[in-house]
Amino acid sequence: MDLLVLFALVGFALALFLIVAAYSIVIIKEYERALKFKFGEFIEVLEPGLHVIIPYVHKVEKVDYRTRSFDVSPQKVLTKDNVSTSVNAIVFLRVRRGKEQIKQSVLEVDNYERVTVDYARTMLRDMISSRNLDTILQEREEMAKVMKERLDTKTDEYGVEIMDVEIKDVSIPDEMERAMAASAEAERDRKARIIDANGELQAAVRTRIASELLGTKGYRLRTLQTLDSVAVENATIVTIPTSLISEDMMASDEEEGLSKDLVNEIDLKSLLKTVNVEDLAKDIQ
């Protein structure tokens, strides 16, 4: 009987020892730091490794300082030009690695993650309401940069560093989206018309230059070239006006001199500069 009591006492003592040992050993991982308290009073910051504490006397609170991301829920706000807009963002943050900052992340704020997201939500609403819709759509990166700087200033008070802020999505009403699409289409059409008009003007100028170089007989020569291209298209009969094969087709001395000049390469760009576009436009009218 006494032996059974002895075994029971030994077993109880062993179990008590294992329980105390389990609560007495604290393992801190490489990406963690821990704050050690004694009867609620802060003592020190524990480094990675194995640490022994006294249960119910000491308490350890771990801090993970790896970078983490948190979504800022969509904020539906009126822009400066009274457009209802919904914008959401994502915040990347981590606890600074200094011992003082790790201490602040626990002692200076209740929950640094929740507080940071609340700050980000408030700042995002303020930035949307102070800008026009066009500015929000065109300067998303600049908005994210400003928000990061402002948020980092706030979170520095409790040892948190803002790594990055990204504006994820900007939602606008369907009717506004259709209006913007129509406006963009009209702008593309306007640019296309300007390009076509510039092309027509350049073609007109070059045609004018060519007509001055070739003269009347040059025009007839171009007509013969056109007839030649028509004959290639499997045509069996090609009609040639008799006016094109008269003696007037023979080149004069002046035109022969011009033809010799044309043998050399003529820089049309330099000729284009000598043409007054305004005078040409008046001639066309």
The helix fraction, in percent, is 55-70%
Instruction: Count all strands and give the number.
Output: 8
Which stretches of 5+ consecutive residues score pLDDT under 50? Answer: 253-266
Multimer state? single chain
GO molecular function, one term: peptidase activity
Protein name: Membrane protease subunit stomatin/prohibitin-like protein
Membrane topology: Single-pass membrane protein
Keywords: Hydrolase, Membrane, Protease, Transmembrane, Transmembrane helix
Structure explained in plain terms:
This protein is an alpha+beta fold and 285 residues long. The chain has 3 domains: 2-64, no CATH class; 68-172, Band 7 domain (Tetrahydropterin Synthase, Chain A, 2-Layer Sandwich); 177-284, no CATH class. 55% of the residues lie in helices and 22% in strands. It contains 9 helices and 8 strands. It has helices at residues 2-24, 99-107, 112-129, 133-138, 140-155, 174-232, 253-263, 268-274, 277-284, and strands spanning 25-28, 32-38, 41-46, 49-52, 58-64, 68-78, 84-95, 160-171. Strand 2 and strand 3 (41-46) form a beta hairpin. The longest helix is centred in the last third of the chain and has 59 residues, at 174-232. Mean pLDDT is 78; it is low at 253-266. It is found in: Membrane. Residues 23-184 form the Band domain. This is Membrane protease subunit stomatin/prohibitin-like protein.
Quick structural gist:
With 285 residues, the protein is an alpha+beta fold. The chain has three domains: 63 residues, no CATH class; 105 residues, 2-Layer Sandwich (Tetrahydropterin Synthase, Chain A); 108 residues, no CATH class.
